[in-house]
Each structure stands twice: as structure tokens, then as C-alpha cells.
Amino acid sequence: MTRRRAVEWLAGAGWRCMATAAPGAARQQPHHQIQKKLGLKDVQHIVAITSAKGGVGKSTTAVNVAVAMATRLGLRVGLLDADIHGPSIPTLMNLRGKPELDKAGSQALMLPKENFRVKTMSFGFFLEGDEPVVWRGPMVNNAFDKMLFGTQWGPLDVLVVDMPPGTGDAQINLGQRIPLSGAALVSTPQDVALIDVRRGAQMFLKLRVPLLGLIENMSHHTCSKCGHVERIFGAGGVQRAASDYGLEVLGEVPLHVDIQAKSDAGTPVVASDPRGDLAAAYSHIAERIHSRLQQLGSSQTAAPKITVE
Question: GO terms for biological process (predicted)?
């Protein structure tokens, strides 16, 4: 499907979406007052998996955490790929083809694809091969709105959002459009990654999105021959950053060839080796995120009021 056909197909869903944010006071509205209409009306929590830094394994983390929530915790889980320019979720979840439409309601909604008990939506479903998405901000925001609000998610306990890297216009707009319950930040231990992750934390704090904690990815490598453990990207950086923000480290995921191989094959390690140590690491993170969401409850503040027509 060409990019033009993708746009035409999305427009053919027959609805329009508008996000509004009144200055000042709008950001002070409590979570329960945020309007979540159309496909989001039965979603309890929306969690951003973010890093503000590319190449730290954020998408792989988002996929395995979502699968762990569904298969290990027994939650009803959705996964939204918010990276319009570089969607990788279709590969990681082994899903292809454009979504079907549910035209039963007053406005047509897209039906998410499902694998590993996780309902999934990505703009990658509308692209073919290595076709680039050469779009400016307004088109990106419109496509994202249609995926978020125009998908028939159904009843979900948690919708996991794989955020794009950076702290620019796209990330701010997403943070304002999504009624987020919280954000979990992914980083490797090295300082060059943590610099951007700290900026990402500051961005979400400015948007009044609760920070759930930090995830240390590629924390160490264990030699398969001799068992020697090496901290390739350094040690202690994520813990220091978490302490600076008064947060916890939700978990550590090692640098392991199985994560890369299973991800490229579209079989997340949580699903392909559910009893292994790697699956246990992701499951622990999923448990901690779910626990933090329960602790926050109805007392949290969130993103601006969202109106969908």
C-alpha cells in the first residue's frame, strides 16, 4: 500500500478527531475528568514506554512488557505504536496487513490486530517494505489520533504506548493528546543515553504525567562460555538518575543475543521462552508497572482534556 493509499484509507474511516487543551487550568484537571471517547472509552490505564533516546531498546521493552502483562499477569492489554516515522511493532509482534473496519457504530473504528493476547495498532500496517513516511507534524498528529481514538480497543486494563524518541513537537503533542496514567523511562546505563532520558523525564513532568520509574536495559552481559559478567555500558547510571527524581528502578534487562534474535523473528522472549530468566526480567517490570498504577489510583493528575468528535 502506498503512502497516498494509506492516507485515503484512514480518511475513509469517516470520522474526525480534535484534541483541545485550554491554557493553564486545563492541565490541572484530575484524571477521572479526562474525556476518553470512541475506541478509548473502555480503557482503564494508558502507559507510555519512553526514552527520548533512540537505540536503547524501548520498542523491544514495550512489546515484552505488554506481552508479560497479558500472558503472565492475565490483564487485558493493548499496544499502540506511536512512532509514525519508524514503526517497528509489526515486526516485533509478527503482524502484517491493514486493519479491518468495524462499521457497527455511528462512526467506523479500526479493529486492532492481535498476537500473544495483545491487541496491537501501528501505522506500519499501512506501509510496504522500506517506504518512508515523509510527513510534517500536523499529518503525523492526525494519523496518530486516528490510531489512538479510532481503534476499537474494547475493554482493556492497560494500553501500552511505544513512544517515539525525542522531546520535540511530536512527543509534546502525544503527551497532550493521550490521557496518560503514567510513563516508564527506558535507558541503558551509559551517560550519553541518560542525558536524553533525563530530558524526557523533565518533559513528562512539565506535562504533569506521573513517572512510574526507570527501566535499565542492556544492564550487563554474561559470557555464555565462562559466565563472566561484564557491564559493557557502565554501571549505576540508571540508579543514580532514578534517585535524583525520587523514582525506583523497575527492573534490569541484560544484553542477550536471544532478545535480538527473538525480536527480529517476531517472537518476544516472554512468549517464546516464558520460563526463562529473560522473561522473568520483563515480567518483574510488568508487575512493578501494574503495582504503580494501582498505587496511583484516582489521585493522579494527567494530560489536558481531550475532546473527540
Answer: iron-sulfur cluster assembly; mitochondrial respiratory chain complex I assembly
Average pLDDT over residues 270-292: 96
Grid cell digits, residue 58 = 524501548
Q: Which residues pair with 249 in a beta bridge?
A: 214
CATH, residue 210:
3.40.50.300
Contacts 24+ apart (CB under 8 A), 2-7: 2/128, 2/131, 3/127, 3/131, 3/133, 3/134, 5/126, 6/98, 6/123, 6/126, 6/127, 7/139, 7/143
Per the document, the length of the chain is: 309
Cα angle 158, 257, 266 (rounded to 5 degrees) comes to 45
Three cell numbers, residue 37? 471517547
Considering the domain boundaries, does residue 132 fall inside one? yes
Tell me, yes or no, whether 89 lies in a domain.
yes
Q: Total structural domains in the chain?
A: 1
Distance, in Å, from the CA atom of 304 to the CA atom of 180, rounded to the nearest integer, reads 10
| Cα–Cα dist 176/173, whole Å | 5
In a domain, 270, yes or no: yes
Instruction: Name the pTM for this structure.
Output: 0.84
* Per-residue model confidence (pLDDT) at position 33: 37
Our measurement of the distance from residue 150's CA atom to the centroid of its chain's CA atoms, rounded to an integer in Å, reads 17
